[in-house]
Amino acid sequence: xxxxxxxxxxxxxxxxxxxxxxxxxxxxxxxxxxxxxxxxxxxxxxxxxxxxxxxxxxxxxxxxxxxxxxxxxxxxxxxxxxxxxxxxxxxxxxxxxxxxxxxxxxxxxxxxxxxxxxxxxxxxxxxxxxxxxxxxxxxxxxxxxxxxxxxxxxxxxxxxxxxxxxxxxxxxxxxxxxxxxxxxxxxxxxxxxxxxxxxxxxxxxxxxxxxxxxxxxxxxxxxxxxxxxxxxxxxxxxxxxxxxxxxxxxxxxxxxxx
Amino acid sequence: xxxxxxxxxxxxxxxxxxxxxxxxxxxxxxxxxxxxxxxxxxxxxxxxxxxxxxxxxxxxxxxxxxxxxxxxxxxxxxxxxxxxxxxxxxxxxxxxxxxxxxxxxxxxxxxxxxxxxxxxxxxxxxxxxxxxxxxxxxxxxxxxxxxxxxxxxxxxxxxxxxxxxxxxxxxxxxxxxxxxxxxxxxxxxxxxxxxxxxxxxxxxxxxxxxxxxxxxxxxxxxxxxxxxxxxxxxxxxxxxxxxxxxxx
Lengths: 258, 248
Known about the structure:
Chain A is of the alpha+beta class.
């Protein structure tokens, strides 16, 4: 490990976790480093536009180059690039918000988000990270992982996010089996009170699961007395179409219960 | 009121030994709900603005819509007991408010209403039980603890301060003041926290530095409660009526 790169990364994370800007002294205290060291690192990061200094207060904040890097990360994500059209179509058909996510460690990272098409004020959630066991996207993805990886995740931390979060490995394992049987994963207020999800897995040309696409919205609309049939059909169709585009063979798609 | 002038002033003053037994009735509960509705209308955009930073930007609109519906519903219930009023408020909230606020606040009101049963009046101690039931209901649904950056960060300390004030011999009014203060402090205390529950938790460290909208609306309700019990007492005082004394 290169120490200075590690320190620079910690500076970026510290600046990324605060609404307020941070001065050299504050950063030095927070990271337990000498002010001169922090100053040198900041100057280097600033030269690369990874941080910038507020001219009035002299404090530092994240720089514009990070936005470009973040966008590049999303652009390089093939799943996101290919999902744009399918996600838009699904949102229009179901009249609900659409999420596309991929598994990073034990969390689902949202790589794409289409707003519910009703002109209401909504906040872009791309970049959000949701524990896999609490969301439909996560359960849809994990259901098709190889058994060892699945067992690893089931044995990992399963934090309770609401009163309805499934936190027992046994219940989750059963839920994953249901996903394979039915081809969709459901989420009934397991991540956020009042919110539900319906998602289906996405497969690549090797038949491996690469992520999931699904609807996210108010529980009373998504799961009125169980999942709304048309919503489930729309999600499955979008997942099937998108998987086909990613090169998944008919077998992988059929294996997903579609 | 006729004859008030003839009554010796001393009889209009509260009796100190009975401070802790002051009574809340349906009129006072209506005053409180009305005060919450008025404040939510005034703070709607502020709450939405707070929510836009770490949530879905709908908290102000949702809370305002919910309380407008609550006020319409309870206006039709003339002879309702305090418990009935709160239960109707809870059910109305659950059915009209989307997102997390509907089920959470709805449950809080319903649970409080259950505790108050059919009593036409109740004392500060039963109100403590009602608040405790509200907190338990909220925690059962939301699984949040103090420090998770949610409404619990305002509700739990408010409940603690209210109970402490009563144990130290305070009145309904001083207990409500203590609760308001503690709730506001808890609300401000959410700013440096990283969210561990709700949509804000998806943001991870980025939720730090923002005040939680749910804790803010809870603090607003305790500010309204303080104002309602003081206004209720003043009104009775002005009208020369003494509150009945409760045993609870």
